Amino acid sequence: MGGGATRLYSTLTQTFSGSSSPLSIPPSYLSPHQPSLTNLDSDFCLQQEEDSPPTCSLDPVELLQQCEEALRDQPPRLLRNFVHTGDGGGDASSTVRVMQWNILAQALGVGVDNFVRCPLEALSWSRRKDLILGEILAYRPHVLCLQEVDHYYDTFQPVLASLGYSSHFCPKPWSPCLDVEGNSGPDGCALFFDRSRFELLDSVSVRLSAVMIPTNQVAVVTTLRCRHTGRYLCVATTHLKARSGWEWLRSAQGSDLLWHLQNLVQELGGANANVKVPLLICGDFNAVPSEEVYRRFATSPLGLDSAYKKLSEDGASEPEYTTWKIRGTGECRSTLDYIWYTKDTLRVDAVLDMPDEEQIGPDRLPSYSYPSDHLSLVCDVSFREKE
């Protein structure tokens, strides 16, 4: 990490009780695969309880500037713009910014994925963590859904908690990261939300099943109450099974997640079947739009639609890609990542556009400019008026 960011994080560790004590992790979050506390990233050793308000508030603008300073000798981040949908009619005070991103597990990026056109230096954690945090801070989401998170305890939880986020992390039962020497523990799904905007009602981990058999894929399902409107918002994030040949398993996993969510919204709606609960489902589905699992979500009784279809001229097509990489097996450009929303209760007001081929560059992703092989999806949604 460059000097600017190191100075900032050093100041933070001194602010917390005047020491550099490691993050205190609640026992309920510990897993057999969690790295030892002695392995915590020294740049991010903040003393703070998960469910407690931060003893120090960071300025996200300053932190973003410091991340950019640390990378000042590298190409700039990909610059993207918001496209307003023109739907209108939403209450500006109720707008919620949602970010969905597979950030690429560090152990997989350097040990398994074989990005043959990406320099090893660009994959170093000391460089990638500044790019990842910079991307998050540039858009300041109220709700942040991440996959392939293997630096939750030593980086993302402590830093984002000090910026006002609460979170829930669910590791994969058999993470491939654990097969990589020097790993930082299992990867999994993490869901963060802005405490100033939302009150936590409940959050659960779901191990997805296929034909009643537990699989290695998981989801986090969190129920929130908006402090501005008093409205419920249910958010889920998941990462379905990867690779060709597993389409049937992704379909089964998606059906299992939909079943859990249908039960949840019925419970929240209570006896009145007409009460509709706003719902967001974010994730790396590892499925192109022609797959069965995509059709299951598009035709679900929950009344879901995909936010990124708003970028198309007809409002009916997904982007051409959300991931673009070159591995030893060849080049891959696919649409695998989605933000689903309940169209009867939520309105999409703006969507972050996708960088073009020239911006991404001939060596594709990841790169010195971008830390993951998946592009982040960001959209602004607002609550529709109750009927």
TrEMBL record:
InterPro entries: CCR4/nocturin_mRNA_transcr, Deadenylase_nocturnin, Endo/exonu/phosph_ase_sf, Endo/exonuclease/phosphatase. This is Nocturnin. GO terms for biological process: circadian rhythm; nucleobase-containing compound metabolic process. Its cofactor is Mg(2+). Its main location: cytoplasm. GO terms for cellular component: cytoplasm. CDD domains: Deadenylase_nocturnin (cd09096). The lineage of its organism: Eukaryota, Metazoa, Chordata, Craniata, Vertebrata.
